[in-house]
Amino acid sequence: MQANELKENGYQEFLAPAKLNLFLHVINKRLDGYHNIQTVFQLIDLYDNLFIKTNESGLIRRTSHHANIQESDDLTIKAAHLLKPFANKQSGADIFIKKTIPMGGGLGGGSSDAATALIALNALWDCQLTQQELQELALKLGADVPFFIFGQNAWAEGIGEKLTPFQTKPQDYLVIAPRETVSTREVFESLELTKDRIPLKIAGFSNELDPKNLVNDLEKGVLKEFKGIALVFDWLNQFSHAKMTGSGSCFFISLSSVDEGKKIAEKRPEHTLGFVVKGLNNHPHFNLMLGTE
Ligand SMILES: C[C@](O)(CO)[C@H](O)COP(=O)(O)OP(=O)(O)OC[C@H]1O[C@@H](n2ccc(N)nc2=O)[C@H](O)[C@@H]1O
Ligand SMILES: Nc1ncnc2c1ncn2[C@@H]1O[C@H](COP(=O)(O)OP(=O)(O)OP(=O)(O)O)[C@@H](O)[C@H]1O
């Protein structure tokens, strides 16, 4: 179904933005198997679209079809079920997801879909959870989800859930998505950590936000393991310092202009996707989440 058709049928549209990790340091491995990290999350204007229509049936249904994600595994649907106990018993919703953000790309698409579902349904079902309460609920869905509820570019620690607002400079990026994707869990599992990394301090860090000084500790392992992905990295890296986002497999470079990005994207390797994007300051539904929209 097209957006206008969905709206004619009573659906409301919400946006789920992607993110980049401007750098990512893995500090150490925790006893629960997760890793403590330090990262800067940057929201970008690449979106999935969520269409939501509430009803009084008490049922939560996904009305879009996605061949590679079962409805019950969909983080968006899981988010709705997680919020349901805070709503009236008869509160239900039909959710149609239009995916644009490549899956398994390190762009946080699934996490952002889930966060947008929480933000939207908290308002539509009148659950009245605070931002802090939503962030706590979000963490049950994945390490990246609380950030999208936080809704501002952030310095993140812990497993990614300890968030401090972090001002980034206005910047356009070119994001390239290889055809091959990688599993976040497998990338973390194959990390060979010999000793703890010394944590950085947020104070004074912004001066170091030069792509040349920034690394993603997960990048080396992915490039070593996946030759096809490494070829895409090498291609992008000839134009500027290419960097992987999250656990991959997408890479990005900073641009000096949108035109430059478009020209490079036109030459991209076969079977890859290219997106010229802008950094955002805030989540598009930041005000809705704060209850002021
Ligand atoms: C790498 C990042 O994309 C950086 O933004 C995120 O930390 C990943 O977040 P996510 O996709 O929401 O990850 P989750 O779904 O919570 O975790 C998937 C798997 O990745 C590993 N994982 C994830 C995050 C983290 N800080 N340490 C980990 O070791 C765990 O094995 C976990 O089982
Ligand atoms: N609505 C959804 N959209 C995308 N993926 C989903 C969704 N629901 C569940 N998933 C599952 O989550 C996995 C990871 O999705 P996602 O796109 O968030 O990962 P990612 O881009 O690597 O981001 P991250 O930076 O969080 O690791 C997918 O491979 C898919 O199996």
TrEMBL record:
Record-listed ATP binding positions: P102, M103, G104, G105, G106, L107, G108, G109, G110, S111, S112
Catalytic activity, EC: 2.7.1.148
Lineage: superkingdom: Bacteria
Single GO molecular function: 4-(cytidine 5'-diphospho)-2-C-methyl-D-erythritol kinase activity
InterPro entries found in the cross-reference section: GHMP_kinase_C_dom (IPR013750), GHMP_kinase_C_sf (IPR036554), GHMP_kinase_N_dom (IPR006204), IspE (IPR004424), Ribosomal_Su5_D2-typ_SF (IPR020568), Ribsml_uS5_D2-typ_fold_subgr (IPR014721)
Swiss-Prot/TrEMBL catalytic activity: 4-CDP-2-C-methyl-D-erythritol + ATP = 4-CDP-2-C-methyl-D-erythritol 2-phosphate + ADP + H(+)
The protein's enzyme class: transferase
Pfam families registered for this protein in UniProt: GHMP_kinases_C, GHMP_kinases_N
Domain GHMP kinase N-terminal per the UniProt entry, residue ranges: 76-152
Residues of the GHMP kinase C-terminal domain: 213-267
Cited function: Catalyzes the phosphorylation of the position 2 hydroxy group of 4-diphosphocytidyl-2C-methyl-D-erythritol.
Protein name (record): 4-diphosphocytidyl-2-C-methyl-D-erythritol kinase
Organism from which the protein derives: Candidatus Methylopumilus universalis
